[in-house]
Amino acid sequence: MTSGLAEREPQWAELERLAALARTGKGQVALIGGPVATGKTALLDLFAEHLEATGFTWLRAIGAVSERDLPFGVAAQAIGPIADEPGDDRPRAVQALCQAILGRATRDRPLLVTVDDVQHADEPSRDWLLACIRRLPGVPALIVLTEAAAPRPGATTLHTELLRHRHSTRLTVALLSEAAVGDPAAFPLTGGNPLLVEALREGEPAYRQALLSCLHRCGPDASEVARGLAVLDRLPDDAPEDATALLTTAGLLLDGRLRHSAMREAVLAGMVPGERADRYAAAARLRHDQGAEPSEVAALLLEADRADGPWAGAVLAEAAEQALQRERVEDAVRCLELARTFAEGAGRAAAVARLARAEWRVRPAGVTRHLPELIAAEAAGELSRLDRVSLVRLLLWFGRPDEAMPVLDRLRAATEPERLHALELWLAATHPGLARPGTLPHSGEETPGSVATDRSTAAILAVLGRGATEPAVAEAELMLQSARASDGLVWGAEVAVNGLLVLLYADRIDEARSWCDKLLAESPTAPITAYLTAVRAEIALRRGELSAAWQDATTALDLLPLAGWGVAAGLPLGGAIVAATRLGRAEDAARLLAEPVPDAMLQSRWGVHYLHARGEHYLATGRDYAALADFLSCGKLTAEWGLDAPGLVPWRTSAAGAWLRKSENRAEVRRLLNEQLARVGPGPSRIRGVALRLLAATSQAHSRPQLLAEAVSLLRDCGDRFELARALADLSRAYRGVGQPRRASPMARLAAEIVEECGAAVLRDEVMPLRTGLEAGAGGADPRDRLASLTESETRVAALAASGLTNREIAAKLHITASTVEQHLTRVYRKLRVRHRRELPADLFAHLPVAA
């Protein structure tokens, strides 16, 4: 037996038994039944070929629906051409044909007659078969018939006749079991249907063709049910029970649905395009009328690729809003694209406005194609207030203030000021020159979806404009706890990005980094990931992590091309330019500065980041006056806007540094630095540390070490490694200037180590010669080899003492008593054989980060 007859062994054995009886002159008849395409034909043909090879004469015929009305059509296939006798002569002709056929049977050459799909045989041929069956006893012949099992088999004359005879046998073949199919992955695709199992082995085209063939053999009603299931994935209420049962027994249905998505795809692929669209459109209307969810109806409309009537546009809009809430932005865009295509007038304008807002979340640059239509619709009065607000924001995002201002003017003229508070607040924080004078954070009108955006923007203004750091930070952290990418009226990431920037501008770098990493892990789209990554680059810069800043800034620009960034490009470009400059990648920085950006960017908050970065690059490349011009421009803009907070950009310290490079205007330098110190206050701050470092340069030599030591302490505590290296280098020079080379050497060594760790190539020429010169001039023996004898606690205390801290300061940092510090130092001096802390070896500074 062949492998193609898995689980057909009992049927084969029974047929062998009947064949053996036929050989002995005991004629037999067998009827093989079973669902459509379950291998009845394969079993019949293989067994017939087997008997023919063993001496049987084989006569064969196949029933077909198209030949049901052809008299003697089936019989003629087995016998040859037959003339249909009219009227009363037909029975006599049938008997004659029967006797002629059975007369061929001999014990040497038994006769085998097979009729496949006998249910489709014409009436005269059935009469002929019945006549043969009645005359089988005593004839060495075997008749084997197959028929597809009907859901409710009727008692036809043929069935009745078979039941009457002891020489008749009924056999049944069923679907294959999962074990017989062999491949676990194939069973769900086939349901054990042998035709599909075999076709699946040949590949997808053969599988699809076999499935369509199977449906065709199930009949037109079953094919219609399958098409309905392929479209709706549920049985229609009026689905014929017989057709459903037929599909189930054939292994195509499971729990009233097509068994596998591949079956659904095959059925859909078998439809002509027009039929498929019509079916989906009709299904959409049906499900809408039945009260189905908008998302389900919208999915059907999208498959139909049409939205006939206002009801369809409304469904698509509602489904798009639901998709946005579920972070399925692409689904929302598809719905709105379709709604726009078939809408007209104000309905189309509203659809385009919604589409632009949704598409901004996944493809910001693509939104520009909608702007001309939206501008025309706004001028024609076809946009709602919300849509006009969105249009103003989009035009300003893409650096088109000349087109935004007429829209904004008309909006202001037609709307009460309190109803535009959220927009005015956003303008004051992002495009301050366009905001109404005197815009201040307050509750305003709480329009749905805008409250979080309003609050986050108010927090930005508070921390930049009024120095209300603590309330703004508390508000930002509260918003970040519940921030989602879909929050916000126009742009999904705005609340999250604003919250992070509040922390950044407030110099809460560690908190900002923690929240940024959390949000990035949950980011749903590439643009939102780009915005968050750009913020993380700025965070890394303020920590002195130059390689990380470069990686994040360039990643942000890769994730979202410049055309999509609009005026906000100032943030990632600025971060990348500063990182490249500090890393010594001057060509990369110059390339980034050559990238075209909207002119309007320089009149936005994002432009201040860019201007300050450009100034730092100019300063590093020897264009001091160009750098000074950029830093002072930052100051002029932020002062005009009322956003002159050091946390945005420290333009005063940068300008002071540029003046110092020229060794001129010391009075202006001190004024700028004192202003900066007054603005940051006395608390710990990296900006305060930088200001103190620069202020030391304008002070008397004997005052510098104290100022620089405080700067070092602040910068070390705040975690800015780049500025710490600068402060340490200056402190080393200051110690050298007051005749304390042994205190200068460890500062130079630590500064050099940090420069190497950070990759701050821009500082190498400044720091490395300093270290080399100090070490060469130190001379003499030192007790560094004895460091290994110190305990961990002694090492921590000694390292802090070597950095210049007093016993009380060391005690506060290590949370121990001053007496304990003194005891540790006594033991350290004895082990290292030194008398004073100024004689402590410079190698202790390698332990300073641990000690701090």
Automatic annotation (TrEMBL):
Keyword Disulfide bond included in the entry's annotation: no
The keyword Nucleotide-binding appears for this protein: yes
Cited InterPro entries: AAA_16, P-loop_NTPase, Sig_transdc_resp-reg_C-effctor, Tscrpt_reg_LuxR_C, WH-like_DNA-bd_sf
Domain of life: Bacteria
Protein known as: AAA family ATPase
Pfam families xrefs: AAA_16 (PF13191), GerE (PF00196)
Annotated keywords: ATP-binding, Nucleotide-binding
Domain HTH luxR-type: 783-848
PROSITE patterns in the record: HTH_LUXR_1, HTH_LUXR_2
Gene source species: Paractinoplanes ovalisporus
SUPFAM superfamilies, alphabetized: C-terminal effector domain of the bipartite response regulators, P-loop containing nucleoside triphosphate hydrolases
